Amino acid sequence: MKDIVPWPFPQSLNGFLWRLSSRFIISAVGFIGKFILSNSTPYVMNSTRVVNRHILVDTLDSRPCHVPVITVANHTSCFDDPGLWSILPIRHVFNVDIIRWSLTAHNICFTNNMHSQFFARGKCVPVVRGGGVYQRAMDYCIQKLNEGQWVHVFPEGRVNMDNSFIRFKWGVGRLIAESKVMPIVVPFWHCGMDQVLPNEYPYRFQWGKQVLVNFGQPIDLKEVMQQAKDLNADDTMLRKMITDKIQDEM
Q1: 3 within a domain of the structure (yes/no)
Q2: Where are the annotated coiled coils located (predicted)?
């Protein structure tokens, strides 16, 4: 971490107070998300249409417990995460053991101790922009993947204010390359979140907007992994090849 706050996670996350506070924060944020982004009638603030939701739901429910999941998505609003997870069933949204770990900008969400404790209990991991693929947040997410957990990544690395092309960062390539078990990589694309929470002052949630979320089939990385093996690719090339494959699929 660079002059913001100390690393927010204790050595063990199984302490009673940590789990209780984490469960409360995750449940409260999940409830607010469902209020803002309704995906069933009657709608409350905004309506959300979800295509192929079953792909992620089935992946979370049916995978072996040791197989991790990585989701990748475009990034158009500061409310993309956690808001978009409100489209999942309650059994996922309110479950501290199932809901994702998410790489989160340390200079936005971890600027003081109170914010740090809140976001850490919401399973957000502080990543230093410009800190490269070898930093503590990436190591921590690899650890979580090796425990068979779910990690979410915005490969663009920042909110895309004008929906222009942004080359994907190689961090997602490292997460996949260094997982002990190949993760199931589920891509999805969404539109309308920047209307729900605009990226302009006064940054207030809006009413009556429409959001579309489209999940794709898990990305098959077997071919690119075999190509990397045939080329005797080093770590840098492997990360690039994996990231390029995900970018092409998205």
Answers
A1: no
A2: none
